[in-house]
């Protein structure tokens, strides 16, 4: 691969992973890559328009007498939330909030919670055991497989006085935190914005899932894989 | 009884999808139409159409591309119905201008303006990739293009934006 080919590839997809070794040997392409990734991060912010609140139109009655119910998996697309974490907060100086502050909103609580779990911020390639995963995500709360990515941290935490499985997977740009919150209902997706982290709280049935990672992380892709790997039990 | 259960389940499923994907639907519509008011209309129409054809969606993990495809078609229908003229960047309506006046951030404002001025052919794959997290294969499928064409458009789109931002 030469410089021209590499630049075309990285401009088409800034997450492009060069396996030819060209990048390691070419300072100009390293610089171009950094430039493209920075531009891409800004494009993402520029495209993220404010969204008006959800208004569902009047829906006509549909005759469902001949409709066959979907199999069990229908329940709720489960979303993985990821919260890229404390490490990020520590490294990038995201806000650190003291524990005695009363948080006004679920999003504040989620962001604040990340700051209190430094172990979740470790960059590691050591996966937790299935036993650990099942103990933190009990079968009566949700089922989760390893499809979301390498799960390196699992801890039962507390949000609003209720137990919340706190998981971390390793993303391309650092740890991504996922909080499974079966008791925290949100009407629609809530975006999370820290100084250098971003994420979302997604409505999932009667609960929600928070996903937070580095701003550079492609959380959409993470979200989709989490959706496929998590299923509420209730 | 079975029928009313089906109806309730159906409604629950629909509510779940739109709650999760409403933001994606709106932003996609807004960048397709470049007009916030039109985006709201398109999303309303798309929700209605999704409701009517919900039973066609058998794989819930495909809900997002399914809804975005509906938005795309509704947007095309909207412009077909209205036969709107090409937008003149120097003569925007209030709802078109609103799209450019989001956050008070000079750098983002300039970039948003540059995105606004990109050809539709370049802007749409960029929105799908950056905002929706689509792979180039998925973009190709959504837009009915070959993957090579998608890569070329994305490359050119970023090159144009980079040029524009460098000049400013």
* Total of DSSP H or I helical runs spanning 4+ residues of chain A: 7
Q: CATH architecture of the largest domain in chain B, please?
A: Orthogonal Bundle
- State the largest interface: A-B, 56 and 63 residues
Q: What is the overall shape of chain A?
A: globular
Biggest β-sheet description of chain B: none
Order of helices and strands of chain B: HHHHHHHH
Order of helices and strands of chain A: HHHHHHEEEEEEEHE
Instruction: Say how many strands of chain B there are.
Output: 0
Order of strands in the sheet with the most strands of chain A?
2-3-4-7-6-5
How many distinct folded domains of chain A? 2
Poorly predicted segments of chain B: none
The proportion of strand residues of chain A reads: 15-25%
Query: What's the quaternary structure here?
Result: heterodimer
Characterize the largest beta sheet of chain A: strand count, sense, and whether it forms a barrel: 6 strands, antiparallel
Outline the low-pLDDT stretches of chain A. Answer: 66-103
Percent of residues in helices of chain B:
over 70%
- Rg of chain B is 18 Å
Mean pLDDT value of chain B: 86
């Amino acid at each position: 691969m030469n410089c021209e080919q590499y630049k075309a590839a990285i401009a088409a997809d800034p997450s492009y992973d060069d396996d030819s070794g060209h990048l390691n040997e070419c300072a100009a392409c390293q610089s171009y890559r950094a430039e493209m990734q920075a531009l891409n991060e800004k494009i993402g912010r520029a495209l993220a328009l404010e969204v008006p609140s959800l208004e569902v139109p009047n829906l006509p009655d549909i005759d469902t007498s001949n409709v066959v119910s979907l199999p069990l998996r229908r329940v709720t697309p489960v979303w993985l939330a990821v919260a890229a974490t404390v490490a990020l907060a520590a490294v990038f100086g995201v806000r650190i909030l003291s524990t005695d502050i009363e948080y006004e909103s679920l999003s504040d609580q989620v962001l604040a919670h990340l700051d209190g779990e430094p172990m979740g911020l470790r960059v590691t390639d050591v996966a937790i055991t299935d036993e650990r995963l099942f103990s933190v995500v009990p079968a009566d709360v949700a089922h989760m497989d390893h499809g979301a990515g390498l799960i390196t941290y699992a801890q039962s935490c507390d949000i609003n006085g209720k137990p919340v499985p706190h998981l971390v997977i390793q993303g391309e740009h650092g740890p991504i935190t996922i909080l499974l919150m079966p008791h925290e209902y949100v009407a629609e997706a809530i975006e999370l914005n820290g100084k250098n982290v971003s994420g979302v709280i997604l409505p999932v049935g009667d609960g929600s899932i928070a996903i937070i990672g580095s701003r550079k992380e492609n959380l959409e892709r993470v979200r989709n894989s989490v959706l496929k790997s998590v299923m509420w039990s209730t | 009884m079975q029928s009313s259960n089906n109806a309730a389940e159906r409604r629950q499923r629909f509510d779940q999808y739109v709650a999760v994907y409403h933001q994606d639907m709106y932003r996609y519509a807004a960048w397709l139409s470049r007009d916030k008011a039109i985006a709201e209309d398109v999303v309303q129409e798309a929700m209605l159409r999704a409701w009517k054809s919900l039973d066609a969606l058998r794989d819930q993990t495909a809900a997002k591309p399914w809804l975005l495809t509906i938005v795309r078609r509704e947007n095309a229908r909207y412009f077909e119905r209205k036969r709107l003229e090409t937008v003149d960047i120097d003569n925007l309506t209030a709802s078109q201008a609103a799209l450019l006046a989001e956050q008070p951030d000079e750098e983002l404002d300039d970039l948003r303006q540059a995105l606004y001025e990109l050809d539709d052919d370049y802007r749409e794959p960029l929105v799908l990739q950056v905002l929706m997290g689509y792979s180039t294969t998925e973009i190709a499928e959504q837009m009915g293009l070959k993957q090579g064409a998608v890569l070329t458009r994305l490359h050119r789109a970023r090159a144009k934006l980079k040029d524009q931002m460098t000049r400013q």
